[in-house]
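Trying the structure run again after the queue cleared.
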Amino acid sequence: MNVTVNDTGPCKKLVRIELTDAEVNGVFAEVEKDFGKHAVLPGFRKGKAPLAFVLKSFEKEIKEEVRRKLVGDFYRKAVQEQKLAVYSVQDVEDQELQSVQKGQGTHFVATVEIHPTFELPNYRGLVAKRESRSVSEGDIDHAIDLLRGRNAKFEKVDREAKPGDFAVVNYTGAVEGRPISELAPASRGLAGQQNFWVEIKEGAFIPGFATQLIGAKAGDQRTVTVEFPADFVSQPLAGKKGSYAVEVVEVKERVLPAIDDQFAQSWEAKDVPGLREGVRQDLQNELNDKQRRTIREQVVRGLLAQVNFEMPESAVLNETRSVVYDIVRENQERGISKEAIDKSKDEIFNAANLAAKERVKAAFVFAKIAEKEGIKVLPQEFQARLFVMAQAAQMPPDKFFKELEKRNAVSHVTELVLNDKVIDFLQQNAKIEDIPAAPAAA
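Done. C-alpha coordinates:
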Protein backbone atom coordinates (compact mmCIF):
# COMPACT_ATOMS: atom_id res chain seq x y z
CA MET A 1 0.00 0.00 0.00
CA ASN A 2 1.27 3.43 -0.95
CA VAL A 3 -0.42 6.45 0.67
CA THR A 4 -0.17 10.05 -0.53
CA VAL A 5 -1.70 12.87 1.51
CA ASN A 6 -2.23 16.39 0.13
CA ASP A 7 -3.79 19.46 1.73
CA THR A 8 -6.82 20.78 -0.18
CA GLY A 9 -8.11 23.42 2.23
CA PRO A 10 -8.45 24.30 5.92
CA CYS A 11 -8.59 21.04 7.88
CA LYS A 12 -9.14 19.14 4.61
CA LYS A 13 -6.89 16.49 3.04
CA LEU A 14 -6.93 14.31 -0.05
CA VAL A 15 -5.77 10.78 0.79
CA ARG A 16 -4.77 8.67 -2.26
CA ILE A 17 -4.39 4.97 -1.44
CA GLU A 18 -2.67 2.76 -4.04
CA LEU A 19 -2.94 -1.02 -3.63
CA THR A 20 -0.61 -3.66 -5.05
CA ASP A 21 -1.59 -6.77 -7.01
CA ALA A 22 -0.82 -8.90 -3.96
CA GLU A 23 -3.01 -6.81 -1.67
CA VAL A 24 -5.95 -7.05 -4.08
CA ASN A 25 -5.43 -10.79 -4.45
CA GLY A 26 -5.31 -11.17 -0.67
CA VAL A 27 -8.70 -9.54 -0.26
CA PHE A 28 -10.18 -11.62 -3.10
CA ALA A 29 -8.91 -14.80 -1.43
CA GLU A 30 -10.37 -13.77 1.93
CA VAL A 31 -13.78 -12.93 0.48
CA GLU A 32 -13.92 -16.03 -1.71
CA LYS A 33 -13.07 -18.24 1.24
CA ASP A 34 -15.80 -16.63 3.33
CA PHE A 35 -18.40 -17.08 0.57
CA GLY A 36 -17.33 -20.70 0.18
CA LYS A 37 -17.99 -21.35 3.88
CA HIS A 38 -21.45 -19.81 3.90
CA ALA A 39 -22.80 -20.32 0.36
CA VAL A 40 -26.03 -22.26 0.03
CA LEU A 41 -26.58 -23.69 -3.47
CA PRO A 42 -29.12 -26.22 -4.80
CA GLY A 43 -27.93 -29.79 -4.33
CA PHE A 44 -25.24 -28.92 -1.80
CA ARG A 45 -25.15 -28.52 1.96
CA LYS A 46 -24.08 -25.16 3.36
CA GLY A 47 -20.36 -24.64 2.71
CA LYS A 48 -19.97 -27.86 0.70
CA ALA A 49 -20.43 -26.55 -2.87
CA PRO A 50 -17.32 -26.61 -5.12
CA LEU A 51 -15.46 -23.30 -4.95
CA ALA A 52 -15.54 -22.82 -8.72
CA PHE A 53 -19.33 -23.18 -8.64
CA VAL A 54 -19.55 -20.66 -5.77
CA LEU A 55 -17.33 -18.14 -7.57
CA LYS A 56 -19.42 -18.33 -10.71
CA SER A 57 -22.75 -18.12 -8.90
CA PHE A 58 -21.77 -15.19 -6.68
CA GLU A 59 -19.36 -13.33 -8.95
CA LYS A 60 -21.17 -9.98 -8.65
CA GLU A 61 -21.67 -10.23 -4.88
CA ILE A 62 -18.03 -11.24 -4.34
CA LYS A 63 -16.73 -8.21 -6.28
CA GLU A 64 -19.02 -5.86 -4.30
CA GLU A 65 -17.71 -7.30 -1.04
CA VAL A 66 -14.11 -7.02 -2.29
CA ARG A 67 -14.64 -3.35 -3.12
CA ARG A 68 -16.18 -2.71 0.29
CA LYS A 69 -13.32 -4.43 2.14
CA LEU A 70 -10.61 -2.76 0.06
CA VAL A 71 -11.99 0.68 0.95
CA GLY A 72 -12.79 -0.10 4.58
CA ASP A 73 -9.67 -2.07 5.52
CA PHE A 74 -7.05 -0.04 3.69
CA TYR A 75 -8.63 3.32 4.54
CA ARG A 76 -8.31 2.46 8.24
CA LYS A 77 -4.72 1.27 7.76
CA ALA A 78 -3.84 4.47 5.86
CA VAL A 79 -5.33 6.68 8.59
CA GLN A 80 -3.36 4.80 11.26
CA GLU A 81 -0.17 4.86 9.22
CA GLN A 82 -0.39 8.59 8.52
CA LYS A 83 -1.62 9.37 12.04
CA LEU A 84 -4.56 11.36 10.70
CA ALA A 85 -7.04 12.63 13.29
CA VAL A 86 -10.08 12.36 11.00
CA TYR A 87 -13.09 14.47 11.90
CA SER A 88 -15.28 13.37 8.98
CA VAL A 89 -15.08 11.61 5.62
CA GLN A 90 -16.37 13.97 2.94
CA ASP A 91 -16.11 11.75 -0.13
CA VAL A 92 -14.61 8.50 -1.46
CA GLU A 93 -13.72 8.38 -5.15
CA ASP A 94 -13.60 4.69 -6.03
CA GLN A 95 -14.37 4.53 -9.75
CA GLU A 96 -11.23 2.48 -10.33
CA LEU A 97 -12.58 -0.15 -7.93
CA GLN A 98 -15.71 -0.67 -10.01
CA SER A 99 -13.68 -2.84 -12.41
CA VAL A 100 -11.39 -4.45 -9.82
CA GLN A 101 -9.83 -7.71 -10.96
CA LYS A 102 -7.54 -10.31 -9.46
CA GLY A 103 -3.89 -9.70 -10.15
CA GLN A 104 -4.41 -6.00 -10.87
CA GLY A 105 -3.42 -3.20 -8.53
CA THR A 106 -5.93 -0.41 -7.99
CA HIS A 107 -6.44 2.80 -6.05
CA PHE A 108 -9.07 5.01 -4.47
CA VAL A 109 -9.10 8.54 -3.07
CA ALA A 110 -10.72 9.73 0.16
CA THR A 111 -11.41 13.38 0.95
CA VAL A 112 -11.37 13.85 4.71
CA GLU A 113 -11.61 16.62 7.25
CA ILE A 114 -9.23 16.42 10.17
CA HIS A 115 -9.41 17.79 13.68
CA PRO A 116 -7.73 21.19 13.95
CA THR A 117 -4.25 21.28 15.44
CA PHE A 118 -3.48 23.98 18.00
CA GLU A 119 -1.66 24.45 21.26
CA LEU A 120 -3.74 24.98 24.36
CA PRO A 121 -3.05 28.26 26.14
CA ASN A 122 -2.67 28.34 29.91
CA TYR A 123 -6.27 27.66 30.94
CA ARG A 124 -5.66 27.50 34.68
CA GLY A 125 -5.75 30.81 36.49
CA LEU A 126 -7.84 32.72 33.94
CA VAL A 127 -8.72 36.12 35.39
CA ALA A 128 -12.33 37.16 36.04
CA LYS A 129 -13.72 40.21 37.80
CA ARG A 130 -16.59 39.96 40.29
CA GLU A 131 -18.53 42.99 41.46
CA SER A 132 -18.74 43.27 45.25
CA ARG A 133 -22.48 43.63 45.43
CA SER A 134 -24.97 42.66 48.13
CA VAL A 135 -28.72 42.77 48.49
CA SER A 136 -29.85 46.12 49.94
CA GLU A 137 -33.00 47.07 51.79
CA GLY A 138 -33.94 49.11 48.74
CA ASP A 139 -33.68 45.98 46.57
CA ILE A 140 -36.04 44.19 48.95
CA ASP A 141 -38.49 47.11 48.95
CA HIS A 142 -38.52 47.13 45.12
CA ALA A 143 -39.11 43.37 44.95
CA ILE A 144 -41.98 43.59 47.44
CA ASP A 145 -43.54 46.42 45.39
CA LEU A 146 -43.48 44.05 42.39
CA LEU A 147 -45.25 41.42 44.49
CA ARG A 148 -47.84 43.99 45.50
CA GLY A 149 -48.39 44.75 41.83
CA ARG A 150 -49.29 41.11 41.19
CA ASN A 151 -51.99 41.32 43.91
CA ALA A 152 -53.28 44.72 42.81
CA LYS A 153 -57.00 45.45 42.47
CA PHE A 154 -58.46 47.72 39.80
CA GLU A 155 -61.24 50.00 40.98
CA LYS A 156 -63.49 52.03 38.73
CA VAL A 157 -63.09 55.80 39.32
CA ASP A 158 -65.20 58.74 38.18
CA ARG A 159 -62.44 61.15 37.26
CA GLU A 160 -59.97 61.98 34.52
CA ALA A 161 -57.34 59.39 33.67
CA LYS A 162 -53.85 60.08 34.92
CA PRO A 163 -50.50 58.30 34.49
CA GLY A 164 -50.57 54.87 36.15
CA ASP A 165 -54.30 54.38 35.63
CA PHE A 166 -55.87 51.90 33.23
CA ALA A 167 -58.35 52.98 30.58
CA VAL A 168 -60.91 50.53 29.22
CA VAL A 169 -61.54 51.61 25.63
CA ASN A 170 -63.25 50.74 22.35
CA TYR A 171 -61.23 51.70 19.29
CA THR A 172 -60.95 51.36 15.52
CA GLY A 173 -57.89 52.28 13.50
CA ALA A 174 -57.14 53.61 10.02
CA VAL A 175 -53.98 54.32 8.02
CA GLU A 176 -53.95 56.76 5.12
CA GLY A 177 -57.74 56.81 5.11
CA ARG A 178 -58.09 53.04 4.88
CA PRO A 179 -59.29 50.85 7.76
CA ILE A 180 -56.46 48.81 9.22
CA SER A 181 -58.73 45.77 8.95
CA GLU A 182 -58.37 46.09 5.15
CA LEU A 183 -54.73 47.14 5.01
CA ALA A 184 -53.48 44.50 7.48
CA PRO A 185 -56.23 41.87 7.90
CA ALA A 186 -53.91 39.59 9.88
CA SER A 187 -53.43 42.29 12.54
CA ARG A 188 -56.92 42.18 14.05
CA GLY A 189 -55.82 43.48 17.43
CA LEU A 190 -54.45 46.64 15.80
CA ALA A 191 -57.53 47.19 13.65
CA GLY A 192 -60.03 47.49 16.50
CA GLN A 193 -61.19 46.05 19.81
CA GLN A 194 -63.93 46.41 22.39
CA ASN A 195 -63.29 46.83 26.15
CA PHE A 196 -59.53 46.88 25.67
CA TRP A 197 -57.44 47.63 28.76
CA VAL A 198 -54.47 49.94 28.25
CA GLU A 199 -52.18 51.28 30.96
CA ILE A 200 -51.63 55.01 30.86
CA LYS A 201 -47.87 55.05 30.45
CA GLU A 202 -45.31 55.71 27.75
CA GLY A 203 -44.86 52.82 25.33
CA ALA A 204 -48.01 50.89 26.28
CA PHE A 205 -49.77 49.23 23.31
CA ILE A 206 -48.64 51.31 20.28
CA PRO A 207 -45.99 53.97 21.04
CA GLY A 208 -47.75 57.29 21.74
CA PHE A 209 -51.25 55.80 22.03
CA ALA A 210 -51.78 55.58 25.80
CA THR A 211 -50.38 58.97 26.83
CA GLN A 212 -52.93 60.73 24.60
CA LEU A 213 -55.65 59.41 26.90
CA ILE A 214 -54.39 61.43 29.90
CA GLY A 215 -57.24 63.65 31.09
CA ALA A 216 -59.98 61.56 29.45
CA LYS A 217 -63.05 60.41 31.40
CA ALA A 218 -65.62 57.65 30.90
CA GLY A 219 -67.78 58.50 27.89
CA ASP A 220 -65.19 60.73 26.21
CA GLN A 221 -64.43 60.32 22.49
CA ARG A 222 -60.88 60.99 21.32
CA THR A 223 -58.89 60.80 18.12
CA VAL A 224 -55.46 59.32 18.79
CA THR A 225 -52.72 59.65 16.17
CA VAL A 226 -49.73 57.34 16.11
CA GLU A 227 -46.69 56.65 13.98
CA PHE A 228 -45.86 52.97 13.56
CA PRO A 229 -42.10 52.30 13.91
CA ALA A 230 -40.16 51.41 10.76
CA ASP A 231 -39.42 47.97 12.21
CA PHE A 232 -43.01 47.38 13.36
CA VAL A 233 -44.02 43.72 13.56
CA SER A 234 -46.89 44.24 11.07
CA GLN A 235 -45.13 45.06 7.80
CA PRO A 236 -48.14 46.69 6.06
CA LEU A 237 -48.19 49.30 8.86
CA ALA A 238 -44.45 49.80 9.37
CA GLY A 239 -43.34 53.42 9.07
CA LYS A 240 -46.86 54.74 8.45
CA LYS A 241 -49.06 57.18 10.38
CA GLY A 242 -52.28 55.90 11.90
CA SER A 243 -55.40 57.40 13.38
CA TYR A 244 -57.63 55.79 16.02
CA ALA A 245 -61.19 56.67 16.99
CA VAL A 246 -61.26 55.91 20.71
CA GLU A 247 -64.20 55.74 23.13
CA VAL A 248 -63.28 55.66 26.83
CA VAL A 249 -65.57 53.15 28.56
CA GLU A 250 -64.07 53.29 32.08
CA VAL A 251 -61.11 54.63 33.98
CA LYS A 252 -59.65 52.26 36.57
CA GLU A 253 -57.20 52.99 39.34
CA ARG A 254 -54.72 50.36 40.42
CA VAL A 255 -54.91 49.83 44.20
CA LEU A 256 -51.99 48.04 45.81
CA PRO A 257 -52.47 45.86 48.90
CA ALA A 258 -51.07 46.99 52.24
CA ILE A 259 -47.82 45.42 53.39
CA ASP A 260 -49.09 43.50 56.38
CA ASP A 261 -49.05 39.94 57.73
CA GLN A 262 -52.06 39.00 55.60
CA PHE A 263 -50.19 40.10 52.47
CA ALA A 264 -47.10 38.18 53.65
CA GLN A 265 -49.17 35.03 54.17
CA SER A 266 -50.52 35.30 50.62
CA TRP A 267 -46.88 34.71 49.57
CA GLU A 268 -46.45 31.79 51.99
CA ALA A 269 -44.56 33.76 54.64
CA LYS A 270 -45.53 33.88 58.33
CA ASP A 271 -45.33 37.65 58.66
CA VAL A 272 -43.74 40.73 57.08
CA PRO A 273 -40.24 40.09 58.53
CA GLY A 274 -40.47 36.52 57.23
CA LEU A 275 -41.50 37.80 53.80
CA ARG A 276 -38.59 40.23 53.71
CA GLU A 277 -36.14 37.48 54.68
CA GLY A 278 -37.54 35.17 52.00
CA VAL A 279 -37.24 37.93 49.40
CA ARG A 280 -33.68 38.65 50.57
CA GLN A 281 -32.72 35.01 50.06
CA ASP A 282 -34.32 34.88 46.60
CA LEU A 283 -32.52 38.06 45.55
CA GLN A 284 -29.23 36.75 46.94
CA ASN A 285 -29.65 33.51 44.96
CA GLU A 286 -30.34 35.55 41.81
CA LEU A 287 -27.27 37.69 42.50
CA ASN A 288 -25.08 34.63 43.06
CA ASP A 289 -26.35 33.06 39.84
CA LYS A 290 -25.72 36.26 37.89
CA GLN A 291 -22.18 36.53 39.28
CA ARG A 292 -21.55 32.88 38.40
CA ARG A 293 -22.73 33.41 34.81
CA THR A 294 -20.63 36.55 34.47
CA ILE A 295 -17.49 34.78 35.71
CA ARG A 296 -18.10 31.84 33.36
CA GLU A 297 -18.54 34.20 30.40
CA GLN A 298 -15.32 36.02 31.29
CA VAL A 299 -13.17 32.89 31.60
CA VAL A 300 -14.51 31.49 28.31
CA ARG A 301 -13.85 34.79 26.49
CA GLY A 302 -10.41 35.00 28.05
CA LEU A 303 -9.60 31.43 26.99
CA LEU A 304 -10.84 31.68 23.40
CA ALA A 305 -9.13 35.03 22.84
CA GLN A 306 -5.77 33.30 23.31
CA VAL A 307 -6.18 30.69 20.60
CA ASN A 308 -7.06 30.76 16.91
CA PHE A 309 -7.19 28.00 14.30
CA GLU A 310 -8.95 26.83 11.16
CA MET A 311 -12.01 24.64 11.70
CA PRO A 312 -13.62 21.87 9.62
CA GLU A 313 -16.20 23.37 7.29
CA SER A 314 -18.70 20.60 7.98
CA ALA A 315 -18.52 21.25 11.73
CA VAL A 316 -19.36 24.94 11.21
CA LEU A 317 -22.08 24.14 8.68
CA ASN A 318 -23.76 21.53 10.90
CA GLU A 319 -23.69 23.88 13.88
CA THR A 320 -25.03 26.71 11.72
CA ARG A 321 -27.98 24.53 10.71
CA SER A 322 -28.63 23.73 14.36
CA VAL A 323 -28.59 27.42 15.32
CA VAL A 324 -30.88 28.29 12.38
CA TYR A 325 -33.28 25.54 13.51
CA ASP A 326 -33.38 27.02 17.03
CA ILE A 327 -33.85 30.59 15.76
CA VAL A 328 -36.70 29.60 13.44
CA ARG A 329 -38.41 27.55 16.17
CA GLU A 330 -38.16 30.46 18.64
CA ASN A 331 -39.57 32.90 16.07
CA GLN A 332 -42.45 30.55 15.30
CA GLU A 333 -43.21 30.26 19.02
CA ARG A 334 -43.32 34.07 19.19
CA GLY A 335 -45.96 34.05 16.45
CA ILE A 336 -43.78 35.37 13.61
CA SER A 337 -45.15 34.21 10.26
CA LYS A 338 -43.34 31.87 7.88
CA GLU A 339 -43.32 34.64 5.26
CA ALA A 340 -41.54 37.04 7.62
CA ILE A 341 -39.00 34.37 8.55
CA ASP A 342 -38.34 33.58 4.88
CA LYS A 343 -37.70 37.27 4.15
CA SER A 344 -35.05 37.31 6.87
CA LYS A 345 -33.43 33.97 5.98
CA ASP A 346 -30.12 35.52 4.84
CA GLU A 347 -29.88 37.62 7.99
CA ILE A 348 -30.77 34.59 10.12
CA PHE A 349 -28.14 32.44 8.39
CA ASN A 350 -25.38 35.04 8.76
CA ALA A 351 -26.13 35.54 12.45
CA ALA A 352 -26.29 31.77 12.97
CA ASN A 353 -22.99 31.27 11.13
CA LEU A 354 -21.16 33.74 13.39
CA ALA A 355 -22.57 32.08 16.50
CA ALA A 356 -21.75 28.64 15.10
CA LYS A 357 -18.09 29.50 14.49
CA GLU A 358 -17.69 30.61 18.08
CA ARG A 359 -19.44 27.51 19.41
CA VAL A 360 -17.39 25.14 17.25
CA LYS A 361 -14.16 26.84 18.26
CA ALA A 362 -15.11 26.54 21.92
CA ALA A 363 -16.12 22.89 21.47
CA PHE A 364 -12.71 21.91 20.04
CA VAL A 365 -10.85 23.80 22.78
CA PHE A 366 -13.07 22.34 25.51
CA ALA A 367 -12.68 18.81 24.09
CA LYS A 368 -8.90 19.14 24.21
CA ILE A 369 -9.00 20.39 27.81
CA ALA A 370 -11.38 17.54 28.74
CA GLU A 371 -9.01 14.99 27.23
CA LYS A 372 -6.04 16.46 29.06
CA GLU A 373 -7.87 16.70 32.40
CA GLY A 374 -9.79 13.40 32.13
CA ILE A 375 -13.20 15.08 32.16
CA LYS A 376 -15.93 12.72 30.90
CA VAL A 377 -19.73 12.70 30.50
CA LEU A 378 -21.49 10.08 32.63
CA PRO A 379 -24.64 8.32 31.34
CA GLN A 380 -26.79 9.82 34.08
CA GLU A 381 -25.54 13.31 33.17
CA PHE A 382 -26.53 12.74 29.54
CA GLN A 383 -29.99 11.52 30.56
CA ALA A 384 -30.52 14.48 32.90
CA ARG A 385 -29.64 17.02 30.19
CA LEU A 386 -31.81 15.21 27.64
CA PHE A 387 -34.77 15.36 30.05
CA VAL A 388 -34.29 19.11 30.64
CA MET A 389 -34.04 19.81 26.89
CA ALA A 390 -37.15 17.72 26.21
CA GLN A 391 -39.09 19.67 28.85
CA ALA A 392 -37.98 22.97 27.30
CA ALA A 393 -39.17 21.74 23.91
CA GLN A 394 -42.43 20.52 25.54
CA MET A 395 -41.89 17.01 24.17
CA PRO A 396 -41.70 13.56 25.78
CA PRO A 397 -38.02 12.55 26.23
CA ASP A 398 -38.29 9.53 23.91
CA LYS A 399 -39.87 11.59 21.13
CA PHE A 400 -37.30 14.37 21.63
CA PHE A 401 -34.50 11.80 21.38
CA LYS A 402 -35.92 10.53 18.06
CA GLU A 403 -36.01 14.10 16.75
CA LEU A 404 -32.34 14.48 17.68
CA GLU A 405 -31.56 11.25 15.86
CA LYS A 406 -33.27 12.53 12.70
CA ARG A 407 -31.09 15.65 12.83
CA ASN A 408 -27.93 13.66 13.71
CA ALA A 409 -27.76 15.82 16.84
CA VAL A 410 -27.59 13.25 19.64
CA SER A 411 -23.87 13.89 20.10
CA HIS A 412 -24.75 17.56 20.57
CA VAL A 413 -26.30 16.73 23.95
CA THR A 414 -23.10 15.02 25.08
CA GLU A 415 -21.12 18.01 23.85
CA LEU A 416 -23.31 20.43 25.84
CA VAL A 417 -22.76 18.47 29.06
CA LEU A 418 -19.02 18.19 28.42
CA ASN A 419 -18.76 21.91 27.71
CA ASP A 420 -20.54 22.74 30.98
CA LYS A 421 -18.19 20.48 32.93
CA VAL A 422 -15.13 22.05 31.33
CA ILE A 423 -16.43 25.56 32.06
CA ASP A 424 -17.05 24.46 35.67
CA PHE A 425 -13.41 23.36 35.78
CA LEU A 426 -12.22 26.69 34.33
CA GLN A 427 -14.32 28.62 36.86
CA GLN A 428 -13.05 26.57 39.78
CA ASN A 429 -9.46 27.25 38.71
CA ALA A 430 -9.93 30.92 37.80
CA LYS A 431 -8.42 33.88 39.62
CA ILE A 432 -11.37 35.94 40.85
CA GLU A 433 -10.75 39.63 41.43
CA ASP A 434 -13.37 41.45 43.50
CA ILE A 435 -14.06 45.01 42.30
CA PRO A 436 -16.43 47.76 43.53
CA ALA A 437 -19.95 47.49 42.15
CA ALA A 438 -20.85 49.83 39.32
CA PRO A 439 -23.37 52.57 40.26
CA ALA A 440 -26.96 51.48 39.76
CA ALA A 441 -28.69 52.96 36.72
CA ALA A 442 -30.90 55.92 37.50
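The chain has a mean pLDDT of 92. Worth checking whether this holds up in the mutant runs.
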